Amino acid sequence: MMNYGPAVRADGLVKRFGPVAAVDGMSFELPPGRIYGLLGPNGSGKTTLIRLLTGMTHPTTGHAEVLGVRMPDRGILGRIGYMTQGDGIYPALTAGENARFFAAAYGADTGAAVDEALALVDLADRARTIAGTLSGGQRRRLSLACALVHRPTVLFLDEPTVGVDPLLRVQFWAHFRSLADAGTTIVMSSHVMDEADRCDELLFVRAGKVIARGTGEALRAEAGTQDLEAAFLHFAGDAEVAA
Ligand SMILES: Nc1ncnc2c1ncn2[C@@H]1O[C@H](COP(=O)(O)OP(=O)(O)OP(=O)(O)O)[C@@H](O)[C@H]1O
Ligand SMILES: [Mg+2]
Predict the structure, then answer these.
(1) What structural domains does the chain harbor?
(2) I want to staple 40 with a disulfide (CB 3.0 to 4.6 A). Which of 3, 44, 172, 233 is the partner?
(3) DSSP H or E run through 24
(4) Is the pLDDT of residue 240 over 70?
C-alpha cells in the first residue's frame, strides 16, 4: 500500500473519562520517516494519545489516522508496532516464545525476524528464559523486541527506555535512527531529556493539548533557555522554576 500523506494524523481528537478530558482536542500531522517525541507532565495525556493513535481505544470525538487509514482498523495493525508503558509480554512464556507469538500474530516470519529482534535487545542468549523471571530492564527490552519483530512502518513507544541501562539505551537509539532513515516513523513518549533531544521533533503535551511543537532547539528558544529540562518546566507551567 503506497501512502504519500502523513504517517500519523490527529483531527480534533478528544478522549474523556467521565469529567477528565485526557486528550482535549488535538490536531496534527506527522510526516513519515522521522522520530517524534511526546513530552509532558504525568497525566497530561501522552499514553491516552498513543492508545487513540494505535486504535486501542475509541475517541470521544474526532479521529486518528495511521498511514491514511482511520483508526481503529484491524487491517493495518500489521504495519503498526506498539510498546506499551507497562510490559505487554506474557510472563509464563519464554522470551523466544513471546517474540514468536507477536511475530505470528502480525503475520511476520517467526524465524530470522525473531532472532534479529532478540539480538537487537541483547537477549539472544535468554531466548529460553521464562519472561516472568527476567529482570525489569530485561522485560522492557523484550517488550521492545516484541513491538518491532514484525518490522512495522509506524512504531509507537511509550517510555521505551525506562529501566534500560545507558549502554543499551545508546544501542536502542542507533537502531531507532536506522529505522527512521529507512522510512519508519517513530512516535515515543519520554521523560528523559537527553533522549527527547535526539528526536527530530517534539510535541509538548499539557492537560490534553499539544501546546508547543518543534525541534529541541526551537522549543528551547521558544522557552528562552539553553536547556531542555528548563524548557520542559517552562511549558509545564512552572515558569519561575525554569527561570
Ligand atoms: N482508563 C482510564 N480511566 C480513567 N481515567 C483515565 C484512564 N486512562 C487515563 N486516564 C486519565 O487520563 C489522564 C491522562 O492519563 P495518561 O495516562 O494519558 O497520561 P500520561 O501523559 O501518559 O502520564 P505519565 O507521564 O504518567 O505516563 C490522567 O488524568 C488519567 O488519570
Ligand atoms: Mg503515560
Answers:
(1) 8-85+153-242 (3.40.50.300)
(2) 44
(3) strand 20-30
(4) no
- Rounded to whole angstroms, how far apart are CA atoms 36 and 227? 19
C-alpha 189 to ligand 2 mean position (Å):
7
Q: Nine-digit cell at 63?
A: 479521529
Instruction: Pick the atom of ligand 1 nearest to 38's CA.
Output: 21
For residue 134, the CA-to-ligand 1 centroid distance in Å is: 27
Minimum CA distance residue for ligand 1 atom 17: 47
Would you state the pLDDT for residue 194? 86
Q: Is 218 exposed, middle or buried (0-12, 13-18, 19+ CB in 10 A)?
A: middle
Q: Which ligand is nearest to the CA of 205?
A: 1
Distance CA 79, CA 151 (A): 8
Is the pLDDT score of 149 beyond 70?
Answer: yes
The residues, any chain, with a CB within 8 Å of residue 58's CB and separated by 6 or more, are: 52, 72
Question: What per-residue confidence (pLDDT) applies to 241?
Answer: 45
